[in-house]
Specification:
By secondary structure, the protein is of the alpha/beta class. The protein is 43% helix and 13% strand. The strands form 8 sheets. Strands 5-4-6-7-8-13-14-15 form an 8-stranded mixed β-sheet.
Amino acid sequence: MTYRTTLDLLFKSHHFIPNYKCGLQGNVIGVIGGLSYDTSSCMADILGLYKIPQISYGSFDTSVNDKIKLPPFYHMVPNEALQYQGIVQLLLHFSWKWVGLMAIDDEGGEHFLQTIEPMLSKNGICSAFTERVQTNVHFSSSIIEMLSHKQSTLPTFMVSNANTVVIYGESVTITWLGGIIGGIRAFQLLFPQYKKGVSTAKVWITTAQIDFTLLTIQKITNIDRHMFYGAISFTIHSTEVQDFQEFLQIVNPSWAAEDGFIKDFWEQAFGCSVSNSTFSFGICTGEEMLESLPSPYFEMTMTGHSYSVYNAVYALAHALHTTYSARNNHRTIVDGSRLSAQNVEPWQLHSSLQRISFNNSVGNEITFNEHGELAAGFDITNLITFPNKSYVRVKVGMLDPQAPLGKELTIDEDRIKWHKSLTQVPPLSVCNDYCPPGYGKKKKEGNKFCCYDCVPCPDGMISNEKDKETCVNCPEDQYPNKGKNQCIHKILNFLGFEDILAIISTFSVLLFSLMTALVLGIFIKARDTAVVKANNRSLTYILLISLLLCFLCSLMFIGRPNKVTCLLRQTAFGIIFSVSLSSILAKTISVVLAFMATKPGSRMRKWLGQRLAYSIVLSCSSIQVGICVLWLATSPPFPDLDTHLMTEEIVLQCNECSVSMFYCVFGYMGFLAIISFTVAFLARKLPDSFNEAKFITFSMLVFCSVWLSFIPTYLGTRGKYMVAVEIFSILASSAGLLGCIFLPKCYIIVLRPELNTKEHLMRRKI
């Protein structure tokens, strides 16, 4: 039919004779149409043979964009790829990840599905179902059978949990869909058991080719008029043209002589007859008003398609004007006033159309791109229906191809009205409920990637937003809360002076330091007595001073670690304690040599004296000093933050940097302690009056016990408790040396001065 109508347009005068032009004034210079792809392509098949320009005001299909196949074809609509992009951005804007796709079952619908589905998948959106709309009607002698057939042929979107459905097609698609749903509802009225789990409350997204027109039977029955309430439509950008509504108000069926469409339209719209022929509903008076018609049958506003027709007329007019201007020397005057088109052929308009650019009456620029498509965007409209069978389209956004990448779509959500049966605003359209914060997604085997199970986040990870794809780790200075939906800042962990452990440690340091200073004072005051002289007075002073410094150096372990304390605390303690142990070793060796020198003819007398003792202390201490200097020179300790050692705290500690050097320092002190213990143990049977070796043996036993228990305890603790363990070990071992070696002597000096004589000390066991 389209082919015949197109040929009639080109060649029919009084008789249809293809390829023969009858008359000069009726030659077709260009054609505007059609709305659907099928109509446009059929017209293009004929018009292309004669290179007559064709401007479609509604067709998008990419197969007619082939400039080699159909050179005279122009589109007064934007590129369809932009519409696809807008659909994806709209779905992403409202987080609709589970959508249905309905497309008319033709070449254009198949192209739509093949194009849109990969785009959806790329953007994390799944198609819940894909429905190809068959517009043929299944007829049967039984009404119940016909309704039952419709109930079985289109249940998909009504039973699907996808609340968003994208419809691609033409106006007939909406007409057919409304009729189908009306038939299903009628079937449900007859058989109520089929109502369960069926819903038509959806967010319908329609493409720009679709108009919400209804058939006459639907006008009479009012079937499913409101099912599309809240539909979101992509429409060709339009602007209200001045005086357009005034023009519509004066349209009259008497114009039928110039416009053959008016008569048929007027009779169908108003149910009357324009001619005097018999008509069941009466004669049209001509006073009928277009504005009285409901929107599905006639819209008084400038729709996108009407705006495209308006611009197409002006585009052809501008092309003609440009062509005539270029042929200024070849104009001829006919009847004294009109320009003759006899020298203008349709194909000559193509060069003008391809580079045409003008501003229409409302100031919008009209120009074609290299594919013969309008360089413009789309309007986003929201359909609002009313009980009086009318509706309005409310502009709620736009799709602008000139906007920055990713910002092409703008939406005013506050202006959108949603279907009244949808409980949530904006509606959800997901395969399953969103995962709450604290949960991540786990793919369901055998289902599309949009369908998933929600599983709690693993330890150490959170999801602080609804429906997060995966859980994420907290920053290093934070840790997850119990709900695993928020990161909490970790607190610093170090042994500060305000901690109870630090207070106890500080009090103990001061107490033991005071006791050591008191003992040192007693020994200085009694420096000329037999007990002090007999136990090598100089070594005693060195030992007491080193013990005092040992107690005090433990204070460097308390407080916030800094560069100085980290450098000094292990090395200073190691050197000072090595001096203490070297002094004890020198005292022990001196005692042994003193008794060996009492034997007749012994050569040990030449080793007695201060020189040997000082040499032992100096040489043994120098080795530890060398180890510490090597440590500081190669791998010096430094303040460090350990964010992984404890879950809820950041450990502020001194990083020893070299574990081997750390254990070398402690290993050397252990070596000195073992040597001292061995020598003292061998000298334990000396006479009672000189039996300082027994006290040294016991003190070394305490020392070794403390530090042997220190190693596993130190390695088994974390943070400030590790520091507290080391402080306790320093205090316990130092206190053990102080108590075991000097307490008996202080007892004699202070409480038993009668025993503090040379005669008593020289007495031997009998």
